[in-house]
Amino acid sequence: MTGAMVRSEDVHKSFGHVDVLKGIDLEVAPKDVFCLVGPSGSGKSTFLRCINHLEKVDAGRLYVDGRLVGYREVGDKLYELREKEVAAHRRDIGMVFQRFNLFGHMTALENVMEAPVRVRREPKAVVRDRAVKLLDRVGLAAKSGSYPAQLSGGQQQRVAIARALAMEPKLMLFDEPTSALDPELVGEVLDVMRDLAASGMTMIVVTHEMGFAREVGDALVFMDDGIVVEAGHPRDVLSNPQHARTRSFLSKVL
Amino acid sequence: MSSDLDGSGTGSPSGAGDRRREPIAAVPVRHWGQWVSAAVVVLLVAALGYSVAINDNLQWSAVGDNLTEPTVLRGLWVTVQLTVLAMVAGIVLGVVVAVMRLSANPVLSTVSWFYIWLFRGTPVLVQLLLWFNLALFFPTLGAGPLSVDTNDLIKPFVAALLALALNEAAYMAEVVRAGILAVDEGQAEAAHALGMSQGQTMRRIVLPQAMRVIIPPTGNETITMLKTTSLVLVVGAGDLLTRTSAIAAREFTTIEMLLVASVWYLVLTSVASYGQYHLERRFARGTSAGSQASVGRRILANLRPGRVEGGVR
Prior knowledge:
The complex is a heterodimer.
Chain A: E1 6-15, E2 18-28, E3 33-37, H1 44-51, E4 59-64, E5 67-68, E6 71-74, E7 77-80, H2 83-91, E8 93-96, H3 108-118, H4 124-137, H5 153-165, E9 171-175, H6 183-198, E10 202-206, H7 210-216, E11 219-224, E12 227-232, H8 234-239, H9 244-253
Chain B: H1 3-6, H2 18-21, H3 32-53, H4 60-67, H5 70-101, H6 106-121, H7 124-132, H8 134-137, E1 140-141, E2 148-149, H9 150-153, H10 156-182, H11 185-193, H12 198-228, H13 240-251, H14 254-283, H15 289-303, H16 306-312
Helix pairs in contact in B: 4-14, 5-6, 5-10, 5-12, 5-13, 6-10, 7-10, 10-12, 11-12, 12-14, 13-14
């Protein structure tokens, strides 16, 4: 129970009058690939962003590696964390965005090196070695001097994964990592993610790639309208959905 | 040789006649009105120029003699100094005010809002006179042993610099703010997700990418500043216009000395415009540089005389 990498207890989130998350309960075990699927607007991306506090949780509790996200609990009182404490929390969580968000004024190598050098204050030479290895791992050793604008979407996303890995995170969040890619570039990014999963990284993946979920996923949650509708092993949920909403969604995407 | 010219046209459907594939060599539309209006403008300008040139009330020799007069050149130097120093201080302070304005801290953003409201809302000439007359309501500055006579500290040049720089900072703050807002939000989000602080994100990620948007209007601000420095005449800060006006009053050559000043202002703004052009091209690299080059090539292609002939063959 306490060994969960991420534990969500009745997490709520609303934007103005719109309730996006209406009580999310789930648990992500270490080394698992945890897939979040569901129609757009179901709250899966918002939930992902709550995990590294890019969004503030309104109610409930969210723990990462046993630590409460965004707050400190003393007795029955919650204290908001300071900016520095939030930043320290994020350091151990890598995030990959739908739109890559590579730093446009830096080369691929500089993108990967930036956070370890500036945030962890590691020596540049050490970071450079690691960055070169990471770019090689995602198959882009030859592109280390290229700027994001000179790379294809698939290449940019692979650099973005290397950039997140450079901080040696214990948890990786993927927010629809292949949704902005041309169909023929999806495979190269999924290959990198598959390799990462095989290395034992804990991953939470918001995705529409049901093939990837079925093949690589250890757990899958179907979300709709801010609640968890169905959860289980990807094979079971995808081939034998129990709820009408899951069936109707899957019939449209499979 | 001509194949690359006509090859870029829309491919004619196969089976169309040979006549269709020949490049069009049409007679362009003639704009007779433009020629007539150009002739009228040239005539008017020539008439005005002639009347100025032969005007007995104007001593052209005084213009030529004073153009490189040491006093005038000293004034020119003061104008350049004021412009550069006021712009540098204005840009630095403007960045600070812009970042404050966008801060989540309500104290900082309110202070910044008030600053911009105050300095953009009052004429720079009024600010200039206020700084110059600071001694009237603060006879001494500082406290205890560290206090100094205001008039010793706020010399005309210092008053001019303070007024120009503080006023400029308010305008630059708006320019920088627009630049920061033009950077995609995802950039800051990615930086935060990596554990970078607000300050690091702003310095390392957002501001460098905002530069492309900030540079062009900053060039305009600099050129405006060059001309705005002439206002310091009212406090006698020794700039170009102060010096030429002094000579004019002594030698009764009002128009002549205003022409001298105008010539130098035109030289300075032309140099600044040239610099701005190159700076913009440099910072546009990697974004629209390719399309810019093709615009140049297209213009060249349009100027090539062989274009139409190549079509006719």
